[in-house]
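Lecture notes, continued. The same structure-token format from the folding unit now serves as the input rather than the output. Read the line below as a description of shape only.
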């Protein structure tokens, strides 16, 4: 049972860390797609650059928290050993 708990907590950590990046990247992608459909500008680099800026911004703002979550889980794993 303990292995299942460790795996469940690991999945929770993955969702906590990757969730904000994926959700904001997807939101920016949808907004850019709507903008491109309205203006009929179909430039691929526009979507890529905006997503890159958003991901870097999220990492700069939340990177410390993400690292702390990962470190807490790693410490928990080492205490189990």
């Amino acid at each position: 049972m303990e292995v299942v708990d460790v795996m469940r907590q690991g999945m929770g950590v993955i969702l906590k860390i990757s969730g904000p990046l994926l959700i904001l990247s997807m939101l920016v992608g949808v907004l850019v797609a709507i903008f491109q459909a309205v203006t009929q500008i179909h430039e691929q680099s526009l979507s890529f650059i905006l997503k890159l800026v958003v991901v870097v911004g999220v990492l700069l703002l939340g990177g410390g928290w993400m690292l702390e979550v990962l470190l807490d889980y790693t410490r928990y794993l080492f205490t189990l050993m």
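Point for the exam: The chain has a mean pLDDT of 92.
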